[in-house]
Amino acid sequence: MRERFLNHNVMINKIIANLLPYFPPRFVWLFSKKYIAGKTIDDAIKVSKELNAQGILTTVDLLGEFITNLNQANANKLEYLSIINRLEAEEIKGNYSLKPSFFGLLIDEEICYSHIRDIVALAAKSNNFVRIDMEDSSCVDKEIKLFRRLFSEFPGHVGLVIQAYLKRTHQDIMSMLDLQNHPSVINYRLCKGIYIEPKAIALKKHDEINKNYLDLLKTLFEHGIYVGIATHDKQLVNAAFKLIDELNMQPHQYEFQMLYGVTPELREAIVRKNHRMRVYVPFGKDWFGYSTRRLKENPNMATHIIKSLFVRG
Ligand code: FDA
Fold this sequence. Notes:
With 313 residues, the chain is of the alpha/beta class. 50% of the residues lie in helices and 14% in strands. Residues 308-313 have low confidence and may be disordered. It binds dihydroflavine-adenine dinucleotide. Dihydroflavine-adenine dinucleotide (FDA) binds at residues 133-134, 161, 163, 189, 191-195, 230-233, 257-259, 262-263, 280, 301, 304.
């Protein structure tokens, strides 16, 4: 009976997610505003300050990905540079996240590298840090290459995301160990992975992904790699607490990370235990595209739209 109810739910969510791009943006915003800081840099600053006041660090992301011409790449670079200047001037306690496809990764790798290099150089000048988000599997090799190049020039100022659903990730960690050369510690964000990938290269079952997530987390800890434990999955958070205790990991060796607006109660519980927490704060005028794409990738989120229509606040 419960299974039939869940199947219905999944089907309805999929239908809503597919229809959403045709809905008026004002309607989609009702849902999106919970997960997006706003449309402008001022909105991102306001949200970052609120989170900082709760003892939470941020990583600010300008929304957008997969551009189609290189003029956009240059404009996006300039926008990121001005974001860094603004956030540093406002003394926000947080760093920056970006998606390489937003700078032309799939059009011209060299131009993409030079744009991201400018961004990392500016962040490094402020003794800050840029996280390279991991995109779909067509980008993984290219993003690893990009990270390697940037890390060798700006160790301590650039990090990468790795995805537990990809079967290759353990091998990727091993092949990048040569970068781990004290004091330049590698810094990864470990997440499950959000894109729809073929079965041949990606784990599909929740339990398999969670098991791999914990195996990878253990491997990272054992190699002294700094980890951003990015998940809202309570089961994984509890297992991570256990691993931190067992391996006697120190607070400067890891942090927890969550997306803005997702599972705030679990987030607060982690902060109350005095673990470092960072929240991913997306903002920008591309909020509509971002929301509808995320919904198609994860139709279960549609439930949250319906809730946001009926539940006040
Ligand atoms: P899971 O999907 O099992 O969710 C656990 C529980 O959390 C759910 O049952 C639900 O209650 C809640 N939940 C999760 N997502 C929710 C949502 N959107 N709305 C409401 N509730 C939600 N992926 C990627 O491929 N590349 C990347 O660079 C990043 N970057 C990134 C940064 C940060 C800080 C986070 C937290 C996540 C990412 N991700 C990502 C996304 C990640 O891969 C993954 O898809 C999501 O975090 C969901 O996976 P969970 O680990 O939360 O578990």
